[in-house]
Structure prediction request, 567 residues.
Amino acid sequence: MTEKQGLFKSSIILFVAMIITKVVGAVFKIPLANILGGSGMGYFSSAYGLFWPVYSIVAAGLPVAVVRLVAENSAKGNVRNLRKIKRVSLLYFSLVGFIGSIAILIFARAFSNNLAQNPNAHMAVIAMAPSVFFCCVMAVYRGYYEGLQNMYPTAISQVVESLVKAAFGLGLSYATLQYGIRSYERGELVFGKVATTFEQATMLALPYAAAAATLGVTISTFAGLVAVLIRHRIYGDGIKEKDLHNTEQASTGRAIFSELFITAIPIAIGAAFISISSLIDLATIIRGLNAAIKASPHYFTEKYDFAIIDGVSLDELANFIYGSYTGLASTIIAFIPAMSTMFGKSALPSLTASWSVGNKVAVKHNIESVLRASALFAIPAGLGLFVMAEPALMLLYPNRPNEVSIAALPLAVMSIGAIMFAIVTPVFSMLQAIGRTDLPVKLMAFCAVIKLIFNVVLIQIPSINILGASISTTISYTVIAVIGIAMLLHNAGVGLRIKRIFILPTIAGIACAIGAALMKNSSILEFHSKAKTIVCIGFGAILYAIVLFISGGIRKNEIFDKINYKK
Prediction:
């Protein structure tokens, strides 16, 4: 068989792909928010709030089932089973994806009207539906190669997907919005409706522009699938004919399906729960805000007078606030756990293989490496964002001061929760690797209950409103992070060096945040606010690195030395 990539190389491949994907993703989401504003992002986020849990299942959850089966059979030398796992998975996941796409098409309007309470979002939901099928098929190939410890297909498809999403999502959205505006300027109907003012014309065009953006997402998933299929066609999986003849007879398709089904269901449910936060927000934020507005309309008219002046009616205000929160704050905060997801994915095949052969030393090394890498990145990012929330938003969304004023405080509060989620996300992957696929499901179910309760209670309070969503997120993620780590260590039967993994990065992260805050409030920097924000962030990052090295949180030899572990 082809040479496998180790944990370090796998991490590097996925890290590079993740960096490219996130940078390009920012090129998509940030300009998109500048194009659509709070109201348009409300429609887009309503569709994305439904799509994201589904995408998490098919692009993050289901591949894990394939990874586990492939990694286990590969470690045991059952080569004949590998390709059969792929064939059975393709049949099963393609059917799941087809049913999912059809279901979204059928229930799009009911979902938008009833669950999201955002009727104008239904076109965006429809445009997103076909992507479920494309993601399911792509998930099989990604999981198959990841199980073989070959991260190139996943990395390539992720990069292609992000590039196409940015190009088509932004292009189609901007063109659609401009078409609506030009129709008004020519005295024509705006998508079949009469507009008497420029602001009204813009509001009429935004649902269609948001649908165009989601269509770009669908096109990108198709492009990602095509990319992985082309690579598979050219390079294959590296399995040679002699490998197939020198191994035992393959399991039956029914046996593989049964094992795949048993493995996939809890993992898929767990993946759904991991992303259920967005679904809970979708079901509760607009509903709760509407209740708060109804209870105290004068408070909201006064507090959000800037939105009212710009043409947002009181009936549309909840969607505007929701879009500002999800389109700006949630977009920025998603960068932190996204990086730790990569660490968990890269460790999954190695940890599964180590666990299956009983190599406890390698198991401990994998767990500590993933948790430490996650903490080293997430802690300074979260603490830095806590003190730099508003300047960071203004840097990225200079043309949307109204939306920034809504998103700044929720972003600061949610940055602490993002640290916790960034740490617990790879914990779920590692629990799945050691066979405890039930625990992530239970943990995220508990998390969902906490978040749902706090969302329902807090958002309806007028003086709290949208801030309640970020408070509930932070509380729920903190609780499951603590419990999740404890469960992982207990089930793996290993200890953890708490000081090196968490305490030292936290000390350096606090120094980073304090340094950035002092620079932000200093009179030394009098130049343009954008440049000042960049300097503050850079200063905090440098201070973090210095304190980390001085305290022994990271050593030079750890970067360059290769450590061998014996069974």
The two ends are 23 Å apart (CA to CA). Residues 7-75 form the longest helix (69 residues).
